[in-house]
Amino acid sequence: MKKNRNSVPFRLLDITTEQFAVFQENHKAGNYEFEINFRTKVNISSEEKTVGIFTNYSFSQKVGIVLVLECACHFNIEENHWNKSIDNGILTLDKGLLTHFLVLTVGTSRGVLHAKKPKWLENMMLPTLNVTSIIGEDMSFDLTDEE
Questions:
Q1: What are the residues whose beta carbons fall under 8 Å from the beta carbon of 72, sequence distance 6 or more?
Q2: I want to staple 13 with a disulfide (CB 3.0 to 4.6 A). Which of 45, 76, 131, 137 is the partner?
């Protein structure tokens, strides 16, 4: 099999549940229609050569928020590739790679929601999300700003 010259050697280092909260008092029993607010952010650690993709979801009904979930997947980038991505102290990560990481993180979040949701929310599910347009371009990080 021929090796893809554009492949990025990485590994999934860790999965974290940053936040999980339910508010049964805001749930209308039998109603499984929710407004879902979705946010994402990208953090990096140059010391560990890691990229963290954080996803945050809040499921609301008319009365208020019913469930909040924030998950993250932390990916380690192979040192040689990491170093090649740095120019003048600026790390630039490809939007395709970041989108791939986001897809993995959304899928992981779906599993966390399935495992942690209470019985009274048994029909709640994180729907499929088209994340291909969320990260519109390569992202750059100033490594000199890291503490």
A1: 15, 16, 18, 52, 53, 54, 55, 105
A2: 76
